[in-house]
Amino acid sequence: MSDINCIKHLRNNKGLSITKIQQTLKINWRTAKKYADEEQLPTTKISPKKGMMHDEN
Hints:
The chain is an all-alpha fold. It contains three helices and no strands.
C-alpha cells in the first residue's frame, strides 16, 4: 500500500507525469497510470484462516 500512496503523492502533490513516476519508481507504466489516476484505493481482502491449527468459532 505504501507504493500506491507514493504514486498518488507524486502525481497529486508534486505534479509529476506518469512517465516520470514510472522512471523514478522503476515500475510498469500501466501500473503507475492505474494508481495515479484512480480515485479509490484498492482494498485488501482478509480471508478466514482454515486448517487444523485454527479454531472454528
